[in-house]
Specification:
This protein is mainly β and 428 residues long. Strands 10, 13, 15, 16, 19, 20 and 21 form a 7-stranded mixed sheet that branches. Strands 1, 4, 6, 8 and 9 form a 5-stranded mixed sheet that branches. Helix 1 runs antiparallel to helix 3. The chain is elongated, with a radius of gyration of 28 Å. The relative contact order is 0.12.
Amino acid sequence: DFCTTYIILQDNNNNCDDDSAGNTDASRSITGTLQTQQGDLIDDVTMTLSGDADDVQVTNDGFYWFYDLNENGMYEVSADKDVDPLNGVSTYDLVLMSQHILGMNEFTSPYQYIAADVNNDGNITTFDIVQNRQLILYVIQDFPANTSWRFIDAEYNFPNPTNPWAEAFPEMTTLPAGSTADFVGVKIGDVNGDAAANANAVEDRNKSGALNLNIDDATFDKGATIEVAFKASDFNNINGFQFTLNTNGLTYTDVKSGALNVTEGNFGFTMLNEGVITASWNTNETITLNNDDVMFTMTFIANEALVLSEALTVNSRYTDAEAYNNTDLLDVALNFQTEVTTTSDLVLYQNTPNPFKGETNIGFDLPTATSATIKIYDVTGKTIQAIEGDFVEGYNQITVKDLNATGVLYYQIDTPTHSATKKMIVLE
């Protein structure tokens, strides 16, 4: 366990110069801390002091101190922070909100209720889920009826923890000089409390695997209508995912649900002019699908001749690419299911394990003994590693390691007569 404390230095012997920074007498000061329910100090909070000596200061370490006050004065202190509304907000919060509404997994803290009341109407409803999803999808840029953070007097005891709005909770405190006033900060929309409270916070978001979305690759002419079926791959006990989809050279026209109940409300289209679609889907209970079940289908028109695997990419440029397996955090990646080959005699197998950390094995069948080069490169085409050698007819296998790269990579085998390409995923 741990505790947080602070020290006030007092000039009891009047050793400070007359032009020193204020009176340090504790009886003429108001001090306090700003922390999350988990005890993380919150920085960049604007503190406002109202009374016979008004003052405003911005904290840089979660502590504040108003000094040189009237010893007999009464003051009001409040806190405000209304920046970075997406901090700590993800589709997993929507999972928790939905489960709470249905009584499956109710909140255990009044601060969770306040965080989930996104539209600030004193209730937790599907409207809060819709507005939080709109923020995740970049449909809206902030909370229309709320601030990014709310600060409650830490001394306040909620009379009904399951209804924090039973009476107005204090977001301002009145007290005399010589007092301490601590506040609990609540990040709106962040129900599971993983927002970064300060610049020194280390975000613990290690991903334990990847959710692959399978797509059949193909080449299309300009003007072609393309129906892209997003298929399941090891879709086991999933209750939500989100990602940013880049659609270079494509114009979006439609989306249809499949094994998953998705609508256009699960996607953000405000950045179509940049070739970007954001996605967020969740369900109350975990779902398992069969491999190659069509989860949903998106329709596009090709603006130019293109290869689908070069036009569609998933990343975290706007909405973070992540999925949720109960409480486990997974990456999200596209896996294109065709091989670029000149004949069917060369067979390039999927690397195992995939995704992987450290090292992986790549197997391939050759029609005849020959020399070959296996090249690993990133999405920009930059070569990460190349392995050359003479290989026997039939099955061969190489081990790849020390790539010094993460995310989606490609591996390609070239012989004098054949070529084949596949994707791999390297985890952090």
